[in-house]
């Protein structure tokens, strides 16, 4: 870099700044591309700066349970207890929930849709989730009102709750008035509530609206037994936007949004980590690589991007 230049080398950016930048990349790129760019970038990926917010929800939808467990343990460990947000789905290993709770001292947002978390697990870990402000337990069929009561009593700062159900699951569920009552009695600070396809009635909805005085948004799509007149809502609860129960299908609307970073086929998922090879990487060995001459770096770059088979495997564009 020339003296007097207004530009600063990227490898001299502080780790916090690198973490914010790398957070805009896909998980695949952060784990497989960034560490090989330079020594400082490799160290940033190994440290907590990239993992204060972990969003692997879409990746976890298509990964095997054992792959998900390994990935989650690695990323949460790297966060060094500075984890503020975690989004993951289909978490099925009971042992993962206590592990998560051990590292949840700074956790504020937790999204666990479609996970097999149960009332007994909630009872074990809810005391360590006291800093939560947003929780997503949608489509978690093994929990009921008792779990929500535990959450409400332990998470006093909770402002957002997603407890949506799938319309096909409601046939096997008893009337869910107890869950509505648990929300109304233990979560008075809620501002955002989603209860799509719950079997609740009008009185249950009104109890929530009356108890959660700071509520700004309530999703009741698919709650067919709820009858709330728009004029009545405007007069009694003017600050609350109530959606439903009769509205365009919630799941069709959600599934219309796609993230190009996670358009994986089964073949795309065969990266080194998924095949169990990432665990064998010695990232510290990259230090020696960056100390070698430019010729070796060029050789590495060609090897990393040039192979047509690898390009298809990782979904990266061909080399120019």
UniProtKB/TrEMBL annotation:
InterPro entries, per the entry: LRR_dom_sf
Gene3D superfamilies with a match to the protein in the record: 1.20.1280.50, Ribonuclease Inhibitor (3.80.10.10)
Name of this protein: F-box protein FBW2
Organism: Linum trigynum
């Amino acid at each position: 870099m020339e003296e007097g230049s207004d530009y600063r080398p990227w490898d001299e950016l502080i780790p916090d700044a690198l973490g914010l930048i790398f957070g805009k990349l896909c998980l695949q790129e952060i784990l497989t591309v960034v560490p090989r760019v330079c020594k400082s970038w490799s160290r940033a990926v190994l440290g907590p700066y990239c993992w204060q917010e972990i969003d692997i929800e879409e990746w976890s939808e298509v990964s095997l349970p054992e792959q998900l467990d390994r990935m989650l343990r690695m990323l949460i460990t790297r966060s060094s207890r500075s984890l503020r947000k975690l989004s993951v789905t289909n978490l099925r290993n009971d042992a993962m929930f206590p592990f998560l709770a051990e590292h949840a001292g700074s956790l504020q947002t937790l999204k666990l849709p479609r996970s097999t978390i149960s009332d007994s697990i909630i009872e074990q870990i809810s005391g360590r989730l006291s800093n939560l402000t947003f929780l997503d337990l949608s489509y978690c069929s093994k929990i009921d009102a008792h779990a929500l009561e535990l959450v409400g009593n332990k998470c006093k700062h909770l402002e957002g709750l997603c407890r949506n159900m799938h319309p096909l699951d409601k046939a096997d569920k008893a009337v869910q008035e107890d869950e509505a009552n648990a929300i109304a009695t233990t979560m008075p600070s809620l501002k955002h509530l989603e209860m799509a396809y719950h079997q609740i009635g009008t009185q249950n909805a009104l109890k929530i609206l009356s108890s959660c005085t700071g509520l700004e948004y309530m999703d009741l799509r698919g709650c067919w037994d709820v009858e709330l007149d728009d004029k009545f809502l405007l007069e009694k609860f003017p600050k609350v936007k109530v959606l439903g129960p009769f509205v365009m299908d919630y799941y069709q609307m959600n599934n219309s949004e796609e993230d190009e970073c996670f358009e994986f086929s089964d073949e795309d998922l065969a990266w080194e980590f998924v095949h169990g090879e990432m665990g064998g990487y010695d990232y510290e060995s990259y230090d020696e690589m960056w100390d070698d001459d430019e010729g070796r770096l060029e050789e590495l770059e060609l090897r990393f991007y040039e192979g047509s088979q690898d390009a298809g495997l990782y979904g990266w564009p061909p080399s120019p």
